[in-house]
Amino acid sequence: MIAAIAGKVTEKKENALVIACGALSYEVLVPLSVLQRVQENQDSDGNVRLITYHYLQVSPSSASPVLVGFFNKLERDFFLEFIKVSGIGPRAAVKALNKSIGAIAQAIDRGDTAYLRSLPGIGLQRAKEIVAKLQGKMGGFTLMRDKVAEPVGAQKAGLKEEAMAILLQLQYKRPEAEAMIEAALKRATEIQTSQELLNEIYKQRTKA
Question: What is the pLDDT of residues 42-79, one digit of tens each?
Fold first, then answer.
């Protein structure tokens, strides 16, 4: 069992790092919150140390060892809780955790399925299962400060998806909801949250 890995980062990929350890190089899967903090955690020679989750991925024709890396034990512990949810394997979890683990833990704690649905690969049913399995177990995870800087496009896409889910629940038709969302974003380009977006939609409807 590989509990940790230390070496020089030689390559960054989408959700993965290649780390050289002597004559060997290892590919380590990492969530976005880890990937974005590599530089601040490297020493002057470009070396980094990751605490790892090591598992064997088995298919009908092969079995491959896989490493998932984190900067501290708390991040790894959250990951281990997350993959306890039925249907979420380690690779799926790495992709899903594309936002701050602290923010995801807070969403689970408050039962915010709309926020959880904004994670890659997490639909409504899976979001409900995450809350059912993990709510009340987030403890110190909610205090983590592993901020993730999302591209503006990704932020807007997340806002739209969250607002759309709420408007559909309120019985608006999808084309009508899409038109209201796009119009609101054009009027108020500084919008940062889905609540602000919905407030802008409400303000414009009351003026109409």
Answer: 999 999 999 999 999 888 888 889 999 999 999 999 99
86-89 own/partner pairs: CB under 8 Å, 24+ apart = 86/129, 86/133, 87/126, 87/129, 88/126, 88/130
Residue 56's beta-bridge partner residues? 65
pLDDT digits (tens, 9 = 90+) for 123-161: 999 999 999 999 999 989 999 888 776 545 555 666 788
191: DSSP letter: -
Pick the CATH number of 73-143 from 2.40.40.20, 3.30.1330.50, 1.10.150.20, 3.40.50.2000: 1.10.150.20
Q: Is the pTM of this model over 0.90?
A: no
